[in-house]
Structures are given as C-alpha cells and as structure tokens.
Design a protein that fits this description.
homodimer, 147 residues, Arc Repressor Mutant, subunit A, two-stranded antiparallel ribbon, 2 strands, elongated, binds FE2/S2 (inorganic) cluster, DNA-binding
DNA sequence: CCATATCGGACTAAAATGGTCCGATATTAG
DNA sequence: CTAATATCGGACCATTTTAGTCCGATATGG
C-alpha cells in the first residue's frame, strides 16, 4: 500500500488509454511497448485496474484494454489506489488494532492530516488534464520542447 | 525511505525525551518500556537519530539519550527523515536515472507537488507542540479522557 | 577495577515488491 | 467448426526492504 513502480506503470497505462480514441481497445502489447512496461506485469496490473472498474478488458483475438469512463472522470487517486491498494502512509494509521496508542499519541492526528492532504491532492488530478499535458508534442510541432 | 513502524518508534522516542526535563539523560530501557519499543531496536534507531544530530547519546553507566536541541526546534519531518531516510513517495522521483521519462511524464510534477506538500506539513509540526498535546493527562486529572 | 549501559555492526526472519509462467478461456478470422 | 490470437487468473520465484536480535567492543560512574 505504497507508491511503487506498479503505481507508476498503472498511471502510464491509463494515460496511454486516455490518449487513445475514447473507448477504443488497445492491445496490451502496444501499451507495454509504448510505455516501457514489462508486458506480463502489465497483465497482472490490468486485472487490478479492471477489478476497480477503471478499465474494461477484452479477451480473445484483437483483445486489449479500454477505459470504462471518460478520462475526465478518472482521478489519479483512483488509479493509485486501484494499483496498490488504499493509500495510507503509516502502518499505525492503517490498522487501529496494531496501535492501541492511537488515541493518546499526538502524532496520530498529524499522520491523518497528511494522509487526507495527500489523497486530496491526487484526487484533484484527472486524466484528461494529464493527457492534455502530454499531447502538445503532436499538435504544436517543433516548439520549445528541447530542454 | 517510507513511513514505517521505525518512524513511529522514533517519534515516540523523541516525544518521550521532549516530555522529560530539558537536557536530561533518559535510559534506553526506560524509554523502551514507557513507549512500547523493542529495546534492542531502539538502540539501532537511536544511532540514526544521533547521527542526524537530533539526540545525544551518553554511553557507560547511567547512560542514555537526551535531546540536542530544544523540542521547539525539532520538527516531525526531521525525525521522520532521520529514522527512515529522505522522504520520497515515488521511486521515480527518487532516482532520476531510473526514470528517463520524467521530463515527458505529466504525472511527475504531481508526485513532486504531493511530496513538497507532505514534507511541508510534517515540517510545520514541532515536538513542543506534540508534547503539549500529551501533557494534559498529568495536569487535568480525571477529566473526560475515558472514551 | 568492576558493574553498568550503550556502540555499532553482523546477522536472521518475515513480508512486500517486481516479475515470470502457464493452463484455461474467450473472441475473431476463415 | 476450427485454428489462431490474446487475455484470464492464479501459482510461482527472486530480490529487496523491514523488523528485530545478538554480541564483542567501548565508554562511564562509583
Ligand atoms: S502510536 Fe500510533 S500514531 Fe503514534
Ligand atoms: S515516468 Fe517517472 S514520473 Fe512518470
């Protein structure tokens, strides 16, 4: 339940789908190649995303992945938590029984606040925004992107 | 370099010292017992804190640990990073060479922002504040602390 | 000098992470 | 229908990290 490379892979995957024609099915291999993700690992990851209702998986010939919702509806937080589980940055905050001190510990509320803040930040970013930041290279050709 | 139980142990340890008479040396065993930290593990942890200049370690008979600075000068961030290394929540953000995509990846700036925010939140909390939140039980006896 | 108590580093166990493999199943082309 | 394609879904494995222990060396107080 931490931000790992799996998280980043998931983000890249959804980002790729967000950049494709809406609702189009993209082959796993294509995504893996374009985004530098180990293909078998992407398969596992995709299942988590599908289970969370973010993407649709089409099996069989000409199969692949597609978004279930418009990119503007998918938040970064949703993808992160689909990939790595609920985002919690302190074991103490995760399972209350592991920490009978919580009520007494003044640090507890700080962890909670930090977590809320972090999740809010990620929740405010949607994939249409991210995709838009990625598009320019195709539209504005040869602008000042070289450093 | 993540928030783990070691982080929490470190916080509790410094918190205990902050609650003691300023500059007093407290035995490791006492801290371990009072704060429910495995004593040998605290020893290892204390070395990290000492290395970071947060606490002073007194060896020999009647030895133990003491703060190097007034509690008001010690931030939660300092303790966290002393215990677990620099706080970074994305491997991608940690080592640039591991992620040649960083400049192109729109997620990158979000990770960076989230990290700044998180560190700022922790940096604004000092141990005199935390200690103050913990004191009441001794002063206000038998108030509404029972649920 | 001796008892006490930490140093500091080697060591181990368990969990999480990153990744692979493969039989089963679904879909499409022909 | 059948063959080819491509994912499912879960078992499996290697590496790294985490949590924790142990112990000889060293420092200090009495
Ligand atoms: S003891 Fe659980 S948050 Fe401090
Ligand atoms: S690829 Fe490194 S932050 Fe996205």
């Amino acid at each position: 339940m931490q931000l790992t490379v799996a998280t980043e892979y998931a983000v890249r995957c959804v980002l790729h789908l967000a950049g494709a024609t809406a609702g189009a099915v993209v082959a796993r291999r294509e995504i893996a190649q374009a985004r530098a993700i180990p293909a078998p690992f992407l398969a596992k990851l995709a299942q988590r995303l599908a289970h969370a209702g973010l993407i649709r998986i089409q099996a069989g010939a000409r199969g692949g992945y597609a978004l279930c919702q418009p990119a503007s509806q998918i938040t970064l937080l949703a993808v992160v938590e689909a990939a790595d589980g609920e985002l919690v940055l302190q074991p103490c905050a995760a399972k209350p029984q592991a920490c009978p001190r919580s009520p007494a510990c003044p640090a507890h509320r700080v962890w909670a606040k930090a977590r809320r803040q972090l999740r809010a930040t990620l929740a405010h970013v949607t994939f249409d925004q991210l995709a838009a930041q990625e598009k320019p290279p195709t539209r504005t050709r040869k602008s000042a992107w070289t450093s």
